[in-house]
Fold this protein.
Amino acid sequence: MAGKTQASLLLQKQLRDLMKNPVDGFSAGLVKDDNIFEWSVTIIGPPDTLYDGGYFNAIMTFPANYPNSPPTVKFTSEMWHPNVYPDGRVCISILHAPGDDPNGYELASERWMPVHTVESIVLSIISMLSSPNDESPANVEAAKEWRDKRDDFKKKVSRIVRRSQEDF
């Protein structure tokens, strides 16, 4: 229980900090006021990227042993990106369990570390939107399209951006 209390105090502090000092490019809050472990995040598509002008909603779910383990982040908005699974889960190094990568793709220093905050996680996701990593894709179809049929990829993303603006 002590761990969960520590995690909830840390998350409350991060929420207060974000409310006091909002960060350009996203907004965050709780899904339900009585659950500090589930956050709703809206990411604004970064300027000068294919996602520019889109509004993308995601749920960030924190484990009871946060910050020792990473949260999961899942887009609830439609998303077409090499580093987002078809079900919306975000796949970036800093959300992978700490320590050495069993597959040898990532350095331990690229994986989850307890110093990460909601802000640093979301900024990493914004960076991911700006520059996809098609080396180890979560969505193989999106990665193939990104590599081989860039125009089709762009059309699909621009449709998603338009829909996200209508839904916003």
Remarks:
- The radius of gyration is 16 Å.
